[in-house]
Amino acid sequence: MLLVTGVNGGLGALVLERLAKLPGGLDGVVAGSRTPDRTPVAGVPVRTVDFDRPGTLTEAFTGVRTLLLISAGYGEDDVVVARHRAAIEAAERAGVRHVVYTSLSGDGDHLGYAAAHRWTERRLRASTTLSWTILRNGLYAELLGVLAAPDQDGVITAPLGDGGLAAVARADLAEVAATVALAPAGHAGRVYELVGEQAIGGADVAAALGRATGRPVAYRPATLAEAREAVAASDAAPFQVPMVLSTYSAVAHGFLDGRQLDNALPALLGRAPRPALDVIAGGAGAAR
Ligand SMILES: NC(=O)c1ccc[n+]([C@@H]2O[C@H](COP(=O)([O-])OP(=O)(O)OC[C@H]3O[C@@H](n4cnc5c(N)ncnc54)[C@H](OP(=O)(O)O)[C@@H]3O)[C@@H](O)[C@H]2O)c1
How far is CA 37 from CA 10, 18, 44, 138, 184, in A? Predict the structure, then answer.
């Protein structure tokens, strides 16, 4: 039995949708969610999975052979680490054989949310009972679309400097996660870097959005201080301010262009990845 956590989140939903398209892909699949009354794919059994309530995990993980553990990353590090610790401990107790974990790309160590991912990777490596696969997901194209969204006047004001992000389509990451989770034995002990093939910057996003919408879009590089003030004044939770700022800074200063990584995405997809600019421009076209 394969249990996928977080199925009502963006990535988990896409994983289930991908599994549903594969012949026999949903056989033996169980979905896990904090809200089991909802599911993105009908006909899949859903169990309550809430890492903040470890009591839910004993029942949820019963009979599970492979756990696709989708990171539950919204929170301070201590909160996220406690969630992932609870999930891994419960998996060990339940006799789960293999955990596939959605982590963060290896060039992401400057990001404010890297520590919880690296802690989880270490915890899996230290397990004496679990085999594991680590999917080091790059930052989503969809996320860059939000970080570099134009205002009503068609101006993207963001502290991205001249930096670029090897942004990756979330659907491609879901496809890889589904492939690996269905046949984990062939991926045991592997750490896969999964990033886009091209580094995308603010000017690239502006040009792509301009083409998609038929209206000119300009990119105006901002300072980190300006961005910090804007994010702090928004409805973002306090822990999100350093998350967002560290993302901007890491992109602006060239840490996330993907060049240092041995990118496994094309090989695991068996095709060329979806271009990140198409994902971003497609979203803008749909929103028109
Ligand atoms: N690479 C990137 O660019 C990027 C961007 C954003 C986030 N992330 C990370 O990747 C993860 C998956 O991305 P996503 O796009 O699916 O994010 P998302 O749409 O925000 O969904 C996250 C899902 O995580 C699950 N979750 C949250 N708290 C949980 C808890 N206490 N116990 C169990 N599950 C919990 C929830 O699933 P249910 O609603 O079904 O319970 C939630 O919907 C995120 O959680 C975050 O750690 C990566």
Answer: 17, 21, 12, 30, 28
**Spatial contact of 169 and 273, defined as CB atoms under 8 Å apart:** yes
Q: Which residues pair with 33 in a beta bridge?
A: 48
* Average pLDDT of the residues in 211-218: 96
Task: Give the position of tokens 């045991």.
Answer: 188
CA of 216 to the centre of ligand 1 (A): 34
Domain topology for 2-138+170-194+260-274: Rossmann fold (3.40.50)
Side-chain-facing half-sphere of 20: CA atoms under 13 Å: 16
| pLDDT band, residue 283 (cuts 50/70/90) | confident
Structural domain spans, the chain: 2-138+170-194+260-274
Query: Measured in angstroms, how far is the CA atom of residue 107 from the centroid of ligand 1?
Result: 20
Residue closest via CA to ligand 1's atom 25 equals 6
Q: What is the mean pLDDT of the chain?
A: 96
Coil, helix or strand at residue 107: coil
